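Try this one yourself first.
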């Protein structure tokens, strides 16, 4: 290793050198805020030196490996660290060149710092800094003073060049020249030349992994790309990057770290941590273990093969089959990131001809049904671990004669937290829940009612229709007219049923209907909404109150449970989870309550007190949902015999059909 203190522009002015940014380096990504800091530093140093203070500015280290390019051609300095700083310095030099009026001075900047006189025209050595491929076109055009086409003007390279132009254009030529002569010329660096052939411990890969010159940690994609390319010479690196990695960058912009984590999950059929900044190094270590001993070219080919169905699963590309695309869109509305590795394997099997269009649609709909049933119950536990492992059973699924039946059997063979909710559990929850506020951004009720509309009319309302909205038939705020129509029980009816599924519909209308009368709403639903789901069991009602809402609730719940989210007959009333044999003394109240949904429980100390089971963890008591233990504590407090800090195992105090819950064996 050779370390040499030098001025940055002295290195850039040498015609014996071309700096080369290898493909494994990250793309150019300095922000304009960082460029502001650089320009401010240049201005401060120039101003200080103008006053005779003899100021310098240390600009960090430049780490490189020398690659001999042959006789009569400048040597390549393959950068391991310093790419971002050198690129930004070059952009500032280009901005100064194009902003200064003095033509001779412009030419001096061009010939001394930006071009290499020793290199022939049209060679990659002609420009003194060779960028990675994704940044190269815009950088090359700027360096050679060519017009920048519109499709390159969004690049970070061009945007930062324009930032410098806007900042320095208003200045006098003398001040601009001072930026160069008294500012940039006084930026010092330490140039560190690695010699891995002579000293094996000077490993560019390890140094690259440890460098963090921008204060931004290397992503999993940065680290993996470096690991696979670093052992190749620069020409092999460029060929692999252009043929494979560039395809990934274009197909999955900004998602390569997530992609590699999902590739690892599909490759190993096991779960790995989500690709986040605090997990990148841990995932990278696992990536190296998984890929150790494999040929680099084979890995890149596998990445590209996996990337196409992955882009389909993410909704970034279209399958060309509208019904499949629609189901994939639905899955992404639900939030299906934990299943991307599995869905990619499914779509890969479809692309390779192992599954027909109808079969892959059947699998995707089954996954959608499984997830929506769970989301209605507020369940997401363990899915991130389950779906990658499910990929190992894809061969059994493909070989089966009934894909939906086989997949639902696979989905129902897991632990309780991963269960497929049956019809009883789903129906009870749909009828009792706050349907309007189900899910983030109310996407779940919109999707469920859109699926119902499609079932009824064979036509799905456009998701991005700005006029499509959820509507409360009985309004969220009661007017005097509505109070009169609801009668003496108006407040109770409103409190209990305003967000009930029977009172929520989907309409297509460009104004809030608010608290208009039911007659006015019926007229609008009939004439303008255009949706059957807003008309059935609504337009035939003379008045809208508790009875109407409950009638429509029953209709919609049956429609959703039986048809929209229908499952094969043997799962409709089954437990749909793996019954694990173990110590009978280990009581799981959730498994018991799951099988008692809709049933009344008796409070053992006072059997006149009852509560109705509404989910695997909640009971309905006095119009409010409770967990058993807090409800037991509440009832004990009412007796005045315990303090609020007391804790109870609720299942000890409640019974069903005369048997304590902890003693039930069902």
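Now uncover the answer:
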């Amino acid at each position: 290793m050779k370390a040499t203190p030098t001025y940055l522009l002295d290195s850039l002015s040498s015609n014996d050198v071309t700096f080369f940014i290898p493909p494994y380096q990250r793309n150019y990504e300095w922000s304009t805020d960082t460029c502001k800091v650089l320009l401010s530093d240049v201005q401060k140093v120039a101003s200080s030196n103008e006053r005779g203070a003899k100021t310098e500015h240390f600009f960090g280290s430049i780490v490189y490996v020398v690659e001999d390019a042959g006789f009569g051609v400048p040597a390549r300095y393959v950068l391991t660290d310093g790419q971002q700083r050198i690129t930004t310095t070059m952009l500032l030099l280009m901005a100064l060149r194009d902003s200064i009026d003095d033509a001779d001075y412009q030419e001096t900047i061009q010939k001394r710092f930006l071009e290499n006189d020793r290199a022939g025209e049209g060679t990659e050595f002609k420009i003194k800094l060779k960028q990675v491929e994704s940044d190269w076109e815009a950088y090359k055009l700027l360096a050679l003073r060519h017009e920048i086409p519109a499709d390159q003007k969004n690049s970070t390279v061009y945007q930062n060049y324009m930032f410098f132009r806007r900042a320095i254009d208003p200045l006098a030529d003398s001040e601009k020249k001072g930026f160069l002569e008294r500012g940039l010329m006084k930026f010092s660096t330490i140039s560190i030349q690695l010699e891995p052939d002579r000293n094996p411990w000077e490993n560019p890969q390890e140094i690259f992994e440890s460098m963090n010159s921008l204060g931004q940690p290397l992503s999993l994609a940065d680290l993996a790309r470096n690991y696979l390319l670093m052992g190749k010479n620069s020409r092999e690196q460029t060929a692999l990057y252009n043929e494979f990695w560039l395809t990934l960058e274009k197909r999955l912009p900004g998602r390569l770290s997530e992609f590699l984590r999902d590739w690892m999950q599909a490759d190993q059929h096991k779960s790995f941590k989500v690709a986040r900044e605090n997990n990148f190094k841990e995932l990278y270590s696992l990536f190296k273990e998984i890929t150790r001993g494999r040929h680099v070219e084979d890995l890149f080919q596998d990445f590209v093969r996996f990337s196409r169905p992955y882009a389909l699963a993410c909704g970034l590309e279209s399958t060309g089959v509208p019904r499949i695309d629609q189901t994939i869109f639905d899955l992404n509305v639900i939030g299906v990131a934990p299943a991307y590795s599995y869905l990619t394997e499914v779509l890969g099997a479809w692309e390779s001809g192992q599954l027909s269009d109808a079969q892959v649609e059947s699998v995707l709909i089954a996954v959608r049904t499984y997830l929506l049933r769970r989301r209605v119950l507020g369940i997401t536990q363990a899915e991130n671990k389950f779906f990658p492992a499910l990929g190992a059973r894809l061969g059994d699924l493909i070989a089966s004669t009934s894909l939906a039946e086989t997949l639902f059997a696979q989905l129902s063979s897991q632990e309780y937290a991963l269960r497929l909710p049956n019809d009883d559990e789903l129906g009870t929850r749909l009828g009792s829940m706050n349907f309007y506020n189900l899910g983030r951004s109310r996407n779940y009720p919109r999707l469920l009612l859109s699926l119902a509309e499609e079932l009824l009319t064979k036509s799905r309302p456009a998701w991005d229709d700005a006029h499509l909205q959820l509507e409360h038939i009985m309004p969220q705020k009661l007017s005097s007219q509505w109070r009169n129509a609801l009668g003496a029980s108006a407040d109770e009816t409103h409190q209990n049923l305003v967000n009930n599924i029977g009172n929520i519909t989907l309409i297509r209308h460009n104004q809030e209907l608010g608290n208009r009368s039911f007659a006015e709403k019926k007229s609008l639903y009939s004439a303008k909404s255009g949706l059957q789901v807003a008309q059935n069991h609504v337009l035939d009602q003379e008045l809208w109150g508790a009875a109407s809402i409950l009638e429509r609730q029953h209709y919609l719940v049956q429609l959703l449970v039986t048809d929209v989210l229908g499952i094969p007959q043997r799962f409709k009333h089954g437990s749909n989870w793996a019954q694990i044999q173990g110590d009978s003394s280990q009581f799981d109240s959730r498994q018991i309550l799951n099988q008692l949904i809709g049933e009344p429980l008796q409070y053992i100390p006072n059997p006149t007190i009852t509560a109705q089971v509404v989910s695997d963890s909640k009971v309905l008591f006095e119009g409010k949902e409770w967990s058993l233990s807090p409800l037991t504590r509440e009832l004990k407090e009412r007796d005045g015999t315990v303090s609020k800090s007391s804790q109870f195992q609720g299942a000890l105090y409640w019974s069903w059909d005369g048997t304590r819950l902890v003693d039930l064996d069902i």
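Discussion: DSSP finds 27 helices and 14 strands in the chain. Residues 357-376 form the longest helix (20 residues).
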